[in-house]
Amino acid sequence: MKGTCPLCSRVHVSGLTAHDGENQVVPGLAESWDFDDETNTYTFHMAEDAKWQDGEPVTAEDVKFTIEAIMDPENGSENAPNYEDVEEINVIDDHTVAFKLEDKNVAFLDYMTMAVLPKHLLEGEDMQTSDFFRNPVGTGPYKIEEFNGVGVGYTLAANEYYREDVPYDKINLLFMGDNSAKTMALQSGQVDLVENITNVADIQDFQDNDDYTVDIASGVRCGFAWMNFDGVLGNKTLRQAILMAIDNDTICNSRTIGGLYTPGFSVLPSTLNYDYDKLENPYTYDPEKAKQILDDAGIVDTDGDGIRELDGQNINLRYISYENRLLNDFADAQAQYLAEIGIGVVPEYGSSDDQWSKLAALDYDFNNNNWITVGTGDPLAYMANWATDTSYCAYSNPDYDKLYEELKGEMDPEKRKDLIFQMQQILVDDAAVLIDGYYNSSMIYSKKVGSAHIHTADYYWLSTEITPAE
Length: 470
Description:
This protein is α+β, with helices and mostly antiparallel strands. The chain has helices at residues 9-12, 60-71, 108-111, 119-122, 179-188, 200-207, 236-245, 248-252, 287-296, 327-339, 352-360, 380-383, 398-409, 413-429, and strands spanning 2-3, 17-19, 25-27, 30-36, 41-46, 86-93, 96-101, 142-147, 153-158, 170-174, 193-195, 212-227, 261-262, 309-310, 313-314, 316-322, 344-350, 366-372, 433-446, 449-451, 467-468. The strands form six sheets. Strands 11, 12, 13, 16, 17, 18 and 19 form a seven-stranded mixed sheet that branches. It has a four-stranded mixed sheet with strand order 1-10-9-8, with no helix packed on it.
């Protein structure tokens, strides 16, 4: 079988827990777990027959080694904040490990989907430079047989030590970033399966052809543009007018975007169970009202050049974006709508590295991106993006911060749901984020593949669920 999905760590390595097709926590390397409410301790009971792809057993020492490595500031892991509440890690026996937390944290089970690393191969290695992360030895159904070059891909073989039958003996995994290349490769038979083609016309052609199956899932990704509160967009009236000036529904249903994004106005997708339908949006599409509130605030075009001014300067917003999941198409469309109300946009479309560096440096007005909102099955880490101490856009609201701190320690699911609802409404009311929409992931395959399914959490790609045709 040949496919074009990216190589994700979850192809090779499992965590103590995992997520099912509905993004719910299920057993992974741990078959079960207990929680001691008095000591805030999670105890995980691991499968005794789990092995690394080199045949060595997976042990509790591997788990302890992994989390301690993540928590080590020298390793620079972006996942370290997920484990800041870990007070102690105790190995009870080869297959039992306990985590004592400083505070209750219902999201901790989600964090334990983090891939466990092999201590026997990495102990003493420099995590920043180790070749292991290009040629890992993991626990998943397929192992790396050959690295075929940067930007080319891998040859994978069935893991003989996996705990269940592996459907394919060998898989050629190819990296193709270009949509046209993916489409042509599938049509020509060069590959049997592709993920996330973002050309709407190509998807429609495959849907109309009985030789292919198109599987689309309502995803957990949100496309959104940060608005820099440390610049001209610190003006709330301007932000409100911007949101009212853009017809989100029309963009998402356009010929360019149609079917790949669901329109919305909040930072969490409407398909998640956080009461999206109860949120109130005060900034629905109304360009005439947008113009009026700008006029009333004195944000007007005084020199007749078609661009409004604020504090004596033309409003020309620097829009940082990059070619990923139609982000540039959103930016182009939004710029056209803003021009209609006298707001200028200066596009700066580069690489993902460029987008990220400018985001981190607050060097932008708009910064467009596409984030998994519940990467660990819970939105806590994602919602931290608008907490004062962890924001990338200089946003600060004490009411939001208070709810965020409550959320970090709340264990009751219904109370968490209410806190998340309130946090969303604050961001909506503050006109804090420009929402593109909610990305719908896809997987397309030929008749050589018997079955395949794209999960809601769209990083579970190459699994035993993908099977050959009989």
